[in-house]
Structures are given as C-alpha cells and as structure tokens.
Amino acid sequence: MPTHAYGANAADQALQAMQIERRTPGPHDVQIDIAFCGVCHSDLHTVRSEWGGTRYPCVPGHEIVGHVSAVGSDVTGFRIGDTVGVGCMVDSCQHCSACAEGLEQYCQNGFVGTYNGKTADPPGHTLGGYSQRIVVDDRFVLKIHHPEDQLAAVAPLLCAGITTYSPLRHWNIGPGKKVGIVGIGGLGHMGIKLAHAMGAHVVAFTTSQGKRQDARDLGADEVVVSRIPAEMHAHGGSFDFILNTVAAPHDLDAFTALLKRDGTMCLVGVPASPHPSPNIGQLIFGRRSIAGSLIGGIAETQEMLDFCAGHGIVSDIEMIPVQHIDQAYERMLRSDVKYRFVIDSASLA
Predict the structure, then answer these.
(1) Would the pTM count as exceeding 0.85?
(2) CA 143/CA 86 separation, integer angstroms
(3) What single DSSP character describes residue 334?
(4) Is the CATH number 3.40.50.150 carried by domain 161-292?
(5) Are the folds of 2-159+296-348 and 161-292 the same?
(6) Using CB atoms within 10 A of its CB, is residue 262 exposed (0-12), middle (13-18) or buried (19+)?
C-alpha cells in the first residue's frame, strides 16, 4: 500500500518527502492512520547514523498515536476507529525468558525496532512513524484513553514516558521516597511529572538557574542547581533513588554521593562517549548502585498509558509540520524546546 512519508536516503542528507510501501494487514495485524508522531533524540542519531548500522531509506519515528483503520481477521482486541499508539518496538522473538515475562525490550534475540529493524516487508527494514500510516502486529499496539484533544501530547509518552516510568516502578517509587531527577528535558520533565504523581518527594537537578521555576511547575518539590556545591552538599546521603536522564558524559560521583545506603542511581541516557569512571569506594562503602533501564515491555507501557490517563499526565510539546523536521533536530541539539517536538501527520498530505 503506497504511503506518504518523510525520511532520509543517506546520513549526510536532509529528510525529504518520499513514498513507501506498507503491507496489507495480515490476520494478526492492525493498520493505523497516524495522527501524531513525537520526535526523539534516537530519531536524529539513527537518521545521521551516529550510532552506526542505519539502513536507508530511513523513516524514523517511534512515538506514534493514531486511529485504527483496518484489522486482521484474527484481531479481537481492536476495532476500526479505536485510538491507539505504537512505541519503540513492533516485534520480538516471543519465546525467550524475557519475552515470556513481558519484558520484550530485553528480548534475548533482539526486539524489532519500529524503525531500522529487520523485517520481511520492503525494503527489508522497518520504517517508522514519520508517515501517514503503519501496519503493526496487534501484540505491539497499545490502547489510549486520553481525550482526543490531548493526543498530540500523548505521543511522547510512547518513548519518553515509558523510559522514565519503568525505572520508577521497578524501584518501587511512591510515598515516603525521596527521588532525584537529573536533567529537565524530554525525559526529565516526564520523570518529574511521573514521580510526583506516584507520591514521591521530588528533587529536580539542573545546571541552569533559569529552570528553577520550570521544574517546580512540572511538580518538583525542590530544585537544585548542580553547579552550586553548597546546594548539592545539602542533600548528601539523602536520596532513595536518582533517575539520571542526561545523555552526555558527566561526573556520576556528584550524584552517587547523594544516595542513601542501598540507594540506586539509574541511567536512562546513552552518551556518545563514556562517563568518567565512577568512584567505586563511594559505592562499596554505602552499598550504593548504579543501574540502567531500557524503555518498558508492552504490558508495562499499557500500564503507564493508563496511569497517565488517570492522572491527567501528558508531555509538554511543540507541534511542527514534518517539513520543519531538520530545523527541529538542530533546535533539539541546542535544547531549544519545551520539552518535546511532535509532528502533525496531517502535514504529510
């Protein structure tokens, strides 16, 4: 099925309009007319092959919200007209221990990404949400219960939302817990909102004095400018959990020193080069941990969407037409967005 899309034909080329093919829905497929697609840093890294291994043409986009326009004969959980979402995965092996536990993001045989993943469909790799429609196995389609006028702001929940929700849930964040969120960007602003909604005492860390009020508006109880030693020192040894969303190399010791005994700092940003090696003594003498987390499984992503719908949580966004995507990438690199770009798919017409 011919579909209008926007993508790149090479790492050094701007994104451009193109026509791609989508498969005819099979028995277990759901066809989705895309209304909105969030813009993630991963899109930029993949389009420009900064992580290597990009297959071209590359159509990015894995924060997809739309409406069901066709279903396969064996699909029972979705009907035409349903409001649905697709996140970072469209398949996994379904038979390893991780998949059996509903942790498809850790599939031992590698999950299939919504874009740049191997597939039998032409051109041999998946093509993402910068397009008018997509066809996805029903096991990887999510139900959205937010009101229609919030759907654009729901799109980033499919990546930024679950990336921050999953570690907060895994480390049992809730009332009585003191939680730090490092970085107030696309991921960090969602971390603040979610940790606040879970009932934790939330402390936001930023390098910018100008973001103090922004962080409070998002739900932070306290704000620390990490470049001010006295502010950092005042919180020494007091955090149960720190969610570090910064994707650039930095001194981890400054934050592990703030953890209680048995506290954990979880990293969700992947820097282009390694962080400086942490002070192991600081970990040993406090039984502290540095951990990592990757998005979430399908069941947990559905749980996150339902939690956000119940608490009125969406992302803070700036809507753009798809033709402005290259400018949006450059602004994203300068952190010149509050806090996530979302493509209006109507602009593809």
Answers:
(1) yes
(2) 9
(3) T
(4) no
(5) no
(6) exposed
Q: What stretches of 21-108 show up as alpha helix (H) in DSSP?
A: 41-47, 97-100
* Per-residue pLDDT tens over the stretch 227-269: 999 999 999 999 999 999 998 999 999 999 999 999 999 999 9
Residue 229 dihedral angles phi and psi, to the nearest 5° = -55, -40
- Alpha helices (H) along the chain: 41-47, 97-100, 151-154, 160-170, 188-197, 212-218, 229-233, 253-256, 280-284, 298-311, 325-333
Topology at the third CATH level for domain 2-159+296-348: Quinone Oxidoreductase; Chain A, domain 1 (3.90.180)
Task: Using DSSP, state whether 135 is helix, strand or coil.
Answer: strand
Q: Nearest 10 degrees: CA dihedral of 227, 228, 231, 235?
A: 40
pLDDT at 58 over 90: yes
* Cα–Cα dist 310/150, whole Å: 13
Reading the block at residue 120, the tokens are: 């039998």
Residue with token string 């221990």? 97
Instruction: Yes or no: say if 68 and 31 are a contact pair by the CB < 8 Å rule.
Output: yes
d(CA 84, CA 299): 14
> Structural domain boundaries of the chain?
2-159+296-348, 161-292
The answer to whether 11 and 129 have CB atoms below 8 angstroms apart is no
Closest CA to 282 of 302, 263, 303: 263
Neighbours of 133 (CB within 10 A): 22
Give the other-Cβ count within 10 Å of 229's Cβ. Answer: 9
Q: Cis before residue 57, ω within 30 degrees of 0?
A: yes
Average pLDDT of the residues in 9-37: 97
Pairing of strands 29-38, 178-182: unpaired
- The answer to whether the peptide bond before residue 123 is cis (omega within 30 degrees of 0) is yes
